[in-house]
Amino acid sequence: MYMDRDSHSLWNARDVARLLALVENERRYFAEITANLPVPVAIISSSLELLLTNRAFQSHFQVNRRQEQSVRLTDLESGQAMAAQAQAAFAANQAMDRVEAGTLYISLAPFRAAEDPGQEMLLVVHGADSPAVQHADEAEYDAIFWRRGADRQFVSVSPQVEELLGYKPQHYLDDAGFWISTVHPRDRDAVEDFYSKIHADGRYHMEYRCSNSSGQLRRLRDVIRVRDGRMTGFTLDVTQCALIENDHLQSEKFEALSRLARRVTHDFNNLHMVIKGYGDEVLNSLPEDGTSHGDMEEILGAAGRLATAVEKLDIYVRRPAPRNAPFDVNQFAERISSSAKLSHGGELKLDLDVTVGAVQGDAENLEKIVNWLLALDAVGPTRVSTCHFRAAEVHADKPGAIRPGDYIALEIGNSAPMFDPIAVEPVLLRAHTVMRLMGGGFEHYSDLRGNQFRLMLPVCTVPMPVKEEAIPVVAKTETPRTVLVVEDEPGIRALIRKMLLRRGYQVLEAQTGSEGLQIVNERDGKIDLLITDLMLPQMNGRELVDRLALTWPQIKVLFISGFTDDPLLARETLPAGVVFLQKPFTLESLLEKVDQALRLSLAQTS
Question: Would you state the CATH architecture of domain 137-237?
């Protein structure tokens, strides 16, 4: 993709960022496929230097991946003949298909790189039916090689089909309808239509889903070459690549929804607090036996139900921010089993390994995933078990694989029909993302016997934390304490001010972080507590606190916010003297948090 300066000016920064993110996701996806192609592929410059090669090219020509950009085409076996054809292709600026270069057959296609329009490059492909590949050891490639005759029936299928899909080659050769019967019903018509329309010689590719011999769904990619009516091709398993690609795309969608939800939730919670705060004031002033009292209760009830709906939106679109801490996975499983309600009303059985210890993760987010999985339709008993799991070094290079090391697996199994992948895809992708953010992994196996979910969490290598003793309540002093309230919503600021004045506090107000900073710097007396919204215009709450800490390091802080993903708010990471209150809150809970912050102050100075 290339945009000139004028066209680029029509795009705003956010649009360009989203577009580039999508392009980068597509580039990574196809780069992974190219890297695993069983035919040698290379990109060379007009000076015949190797710029990029795939694994098959490196293996066939013995090219060191780290040194490839210092290697010229003429340095390779049959390189002089390839170089002569490449220079001819550059000179003619025209593609050459299946030209002979010494003992090889090559295809050449000149093009210009978008990021450097002046640099000519050449794509070199050794065709799948060239001598270079015919004499190569096909067994070393993770791909199924096959050939079809003019009647589109298989005439050969490589042994890798048994390793990748579990079927013997003879199934495809003996039964003309066997292959299409393994294709997912929703993809079958599209696949049959695709292959029926391949007539002209050329290269084609197709992605679809199929079932392996265990009934698990896999995503496959066929790369086909047609010559004289006969097909030669290979099939790659791109299931993991597709999962990672979908994860990237889902992350982009969730990020966009999160930004919208953050703004909507923040604004609504401000309005809800104004309605609730002043509504309670009016309600308390009305006689309980009057009709106006009942009307006001209905208004406040409707506002509360609307707040619940917004809270559900917040939870659904919020990017999970794991608060990783040690916890006992067996105790977690026992607690879940005692409260879980299975959708089919069946029995939940526990099979816990008593030798497993603590794991490092976020129990709250893990509980959400487990509840999602238990809510999926199933029949018969559901089994929840724990066990040790070790990820070996050999798995470390696979896309999306967890790091080598020791893990504890929480497994959920049921006897249910194979799930429709489209119906459960959002749940599985969410589970994959959350577990990856915890430093673990997620696997799902589905076949005709049932479904198995494995949630892997890293073994905890530090001692379990000891619960701290409660801070004793310190008697209130007679000296009035001064509180600075920084809040951009006037209605909320006025409510907080009214309640603090009733409680006997001295109150200072500011609408922005800059105003709050000015008040602190100009004031001679001490400010005991800062109450600030995290989402302020221009200077947000965190920036305000960081600025104040330079001159008032002992100032106590109460953060309030309607929506935030700030990692500071993780329970385990709140600094000393900092308290957080989520909007919408009651005025009673506000006073409790104020007292809590000031008790921290008294305890630390005593």
Answer: 2-Layer Sandwich (3.30)
